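## Example record

The block below lists the input lines for one assembly entry, exactly as stored, with component labels intact.
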Amino acid sequence: MSEEKTIQELQNICVDLKKHVVEMTYHAQSGHPGGSLSAADFVTACYFKVMNVDPKNPKWEDRDRFVMSKGHSCPVQYAALGELGFFDLELLNTLRKEGSILQGHPDMKRCPGIDISTGSLGQGLACAVGMAMSAKADHKDYRVFCVVGDGECDEGEIWEACNTAAKYGLDNLIVYVDNNGLQLDGPVDEVMPLGDIAGKFAAFGFETWSINGNEMSEVVDALEQATASKSGKPKVIVGKTVKGNGISFMENQVGWHGKAPNEEQCKQALADLDAAYVK
Amino acid sequence: MADVKKRATREGMGEEIVLLGEENRNVVVIDADLGSSCKTDAFKKALPDQYYNLGIAEQNCAGVAAGMATCGKIPIVVTYAAFGSMRMCEMVRQEICYPKLNVKLICSHGGLTPDGDGASHQTVEDLAIMRSIPNMTVIVPADYVAAKKLVRKAVEMNGPVYMRFTRNAVPILYEEGDNDFEIGKAKMLADGNDVSIISIGDTVRLALEAKDILDSKGISAEVLDMHTIKPMDEEAVRASIRKTGKIITIEDHSVINGLGSAVADIIAQEGKGILRKIGVQDTFGETAPYDRLMEKHGITTEALVQCAEEIMK
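Predicted structure tokens for the full assembly:
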């Protein structure tokens, strides 16, 4: 985006996106609020600070690409695209409804601004690698931003893609691991311990940043450093985050991976978020 | 066909993709460490900037290809049929077929043709799997010439394509100058009034041999090369139902959900016609010479002749 936003403005946009996530999943009565909320800061910083995209020309060939590899967290990406004007903001509440462009998992053929369809975990990163390779092959300077979940890193294809990213020196690829520590069946440390995530990516040849992924200033700093670095290495930002971030009764609760709030919970969640605006 | 020339269909493909890559610089090859075996050496040598070897990681190959296709590339993913149809199957479904991206899966070692490799590499399920996925086109060339012509058509069309090639040399059936290859259109190779033999890939030659033998026995067989199993040339099948009403399918593939099953669907919908399916009977392959394997699974000229005689009674 050409306009320079302050950290405070970004924080408030992030709250807007989170409120959309709550309302969207409430209206759908299904969807994945927990992982959408933990990734909200990164999505906000990408779309409202760092990325070059054009809502009026979603297929602009020189645009930066965004891949939500953990496709179930699409509500927060839809919220960002809606706020930017890729489609009518009112469509947000058609999430998961019949005929909606906002499918349960992102569909690039239906929804403007979605660069690749995702939903089956472990696959989006390989697609992001393919995009970054194309940019290199065509001597274009667009970047590719890809969000993966920590649980998603159980998938072997993630590490296959990492090998490829290192082989081709994809310093135009910025991977973000939304390390909220919870996956569908329980804590990551119990379901399948990942150990040192940043260390693993480093061993695969990545330049790494480890940050508090729910602290906007840290997210923006890391993104600015990662995009500025021409190290010839792919980049990963491991964001320690809180699943259900910003909502008192959702935070760090495994049960809020794929569950929609009821009316009362929706009101409570929106009240929590309203209190989070920075004045 | 004693002095007939033989070549593996993967060789025709390997030669043609070099031309395609020279004509269109967006055509790229993605290998999974099987390049030499799948005949992409020439492409790699001629067009190194359009060549990527991503190692033994097929799932990633499919995803990378999808990502490249969204950026205007025409990726040709090259591997063996077993891995192209099964190891990367879900990635093909999710990232290539669902968004209908312009990726070509070019798979050698189809059917029983990797004879010495045994069951792990012999692929008798790939056509069934790939034709079940929406948006996928599935093609099996019969010989070296058809391989060249059809891989060109596949690269020139927009959308996902799965193509199966042979590891082993098979007889050359078509003239180099034959340009009558259209995706989704069967080739009528011999006219006949009594029985119709619908064949695909390395079984087309068997159908042609059987036709000659049947002629000498007073049975007039028509022979079709159904190189595109999806979308199938349904009109050609219906014409055979109307004309002979007696159809034999033959395929180097399981009889479950391959060519025979696709033809059976049409016959059932028409409500008339008799069908016999020749193919692998719901079992795995094994190590043995290719001809022995085909014999063992009853995919032979003799089986076709016998079947035609039985069906004519």
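Chain A touches chain B through 36 residues (CB under 8 Å). The longest helix of chain A spans residues 7-28.
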